[in-house]
């Protein structure tokens, strides 16, 4: 009976990890799709693969210090601000805001953006998987390994949709803004200085950042179209 109970506990923890991976992989897949969407098709596949692989390697390295990392002041605050910068950088590439230099991005740059964004966003994911594994190293590594095909498959699918429906890019940038707001409010220093934000205020900040990023992205796109139209008229 004891062995049977232990087996079911293992299966329950395994199922929890699968659900966590499926639930939390969306943001990471979205970042990867945003980063590679302007690359040629072959380079998109390479960017998705190497970016996801690099991100998972970093996750494995961070797994053993994730709980301590969350206690560091300014970590999530800086991470949230960096995520806002990444969202604007990706929107500028889409709007052609850097057209005077080049449009889009290169494969190495896309991989760097993917790894940096995943490094910023993955601490909570790591803690969730570590908690669900309850100290079982096999389940922990399984959870981290499972995130690779989920993120790669999700990124490839979202990237295809973005190429077909341009508005999804702005949805993705808005999601990054919402995640950045959550990270800033959960920062150790912010909470010690101002206290934990009430839920209505928290959601106002998160949704406000998402809306601001989308609106600024639309303004950049409109301005870029105006510049291109005036150049074409000449």
How would you portray this structure in words?
- It is globular, with a radius of gyration of 20 Å.
- It is mainly alpha-helical and 234 residues long.
- It is built from nine helices and no strands.
- The longest helix has 35 residues, at 2-36.
- The protein has one domain (2-225).
The domain tally reads: 1
* Structural classification: mainly alpha
Order of helices and strands: HHHHHHHHH
Main sheet overview: none
Rg (CA only):
20 Å
**Count of beta strands:** 0
Q: Please, how many helices?
A: 9
Please supply descriptive tags for the structure shown above.
about 230 residues
Provide a short characterization of the protein structure.
The chain is mostly helical.
Topology:
Blueprint: H1 2-36, H2 41-63, H3 66-71, H4 75-95, H5 107-133, H6 137-164, H7 167-186, H8 188-194, H9 199-233
């Amino acid at each position: 009976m004891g062995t049977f109970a232990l087996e079911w506990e293992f299966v329950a923890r395994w199922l929890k990890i699968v659900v966590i991976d499926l639930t939390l992989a969306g943001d990471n897949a979205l970042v990867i799709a945003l980063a590679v969407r302007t690359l040629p098709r072959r380079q998109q596949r390479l960017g998705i693969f190497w970016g996801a692989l690099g991100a998972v390697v970093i996750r494995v390295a961070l797994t053993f210090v994730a709980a301590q990392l969350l206690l560091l002041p300014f970590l999530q605050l800086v991470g949230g601000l960096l995520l806002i910068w990444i969202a604007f950088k990706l929107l500028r590439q889409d709007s052609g805001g850097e057209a005077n230099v080049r449009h889009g991005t290169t494969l190495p740059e896309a991989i760097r953006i993917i790894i940096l964004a995943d490094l910023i966003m993955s601490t909570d994911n790591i803690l969730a998987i570590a908690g669900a594994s309850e100290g079982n190293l096999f389940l922990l590594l399984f959870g981290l390994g499972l995130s690779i095909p989920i993120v790669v498959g999700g990124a490839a699918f979202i990237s295809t949709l973005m190429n077909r429906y341009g508005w999804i890019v702005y949805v993705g940038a808005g999601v990054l803004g919402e995640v950045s707001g959550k990270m800033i409010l959960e920062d150790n220093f912010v909470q010690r200085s101002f206290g934990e934000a009430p839920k209505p205020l928290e959601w106002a900040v998160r949704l406000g950042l998402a809306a601001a990023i989308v609106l600024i992205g639309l303004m950049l796109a409109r301005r870029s179209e105006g510049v291109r139209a005036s150049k074409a008229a000449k």
